[in-house]
Design a protein that fits this description.
The structure is a homodimer. The first copy, chain A, has six helices and one strand. The first copy, chain A, is mostly helical. The first copy, chain A, has one domain: 434 Repressor (Amino-terminal Domain). Chain A is globular and about 40 Å long. The N and C termini of chain A lie far apart (31 Å). The interface between A and B is medium-sized, with 28 and 28 residues. Strand 1 of chain A pairs antiparallel with strand 1 of chain B. Chain A binds a DNA duplex through helix 1 and helix 5.
DNA sequence: AAGGTTTATATCATAAATGTTATAAGGAGT
DNA sequence: ACTCCTTATAACATTTATGATATAAACCTT
């Protein structure tokens, strides 16, 4: 796989074509995207976020690259980015 | 720790006092509660849910008892209980 | 209280996520 | 081209969640 999502999101507003190609993969990497967006909202680099979380830049890159984080890690990301993590299990619409 | 949440939720409507004592611990075990509720909504026992997920009853009990599941496991629970898993990282209200 | 059903606990091997360090690669600006 | 900043990848040790099995405890009905 290995798709540079962080860079992609940073390009988001500069490159319309890139944006479209990206939305196709949307569902699959929805979580990674949310994490990247939360970080960018907070105006942090991977390195800065890592520091706030007490981990390394490479660990952040790994997660943003698509590797599923644990809930504990997700919570730490939420706190470090000034975000609120919401999880729900609702009756499905099917 | 070791608090019998599943049983607690099953008592929910039969024992008002028990319910109140329970709500105090609410936030801490919110996720476990959601999972138990999803299972009960689907009318499943731990054993039945485990079967649908291809795992064991003890694994379900462990999770419902408070051990943090992985996202992969959460997704499997959602599917097996006919629920929809929603995760979001929103800008905090602080 | 006895038997059947359901849930909780314990133990241990395996799998997955993380922490860590180092290095490569991409992008922006001079 | 060359820096500088940032993100991606790789390898390995450690931690955490899972799978599996067995057993205990709680609940319910008669």
């Amino acid at each position: 796989m290995s798709i540079p999502f962080s860079r992609a999101l940073e390009k988001w507003n500069r490159d319309e074509e890139f944006r479209k190609a990206h939305e196709a993969l949307d569902e699959e990497f929805a979580l990674a995207r949310m994490i990247i967006e939360a970080r960018l909202r907070a105006g942090l680099t991977q390195e800065e976020l890592a520091e706030r979380m007490g981990t390394s830049q490479s660990a952040i890159a790994r997660i943003e690259g698509g590797h599923r984080p644990s809930l504990k890690t997700l919570e730490r990301i939420a706190e470090a980015t000034g975000s609120r993590l919401k999880i729900s299990l609702e009756p499905a619409s099917d």
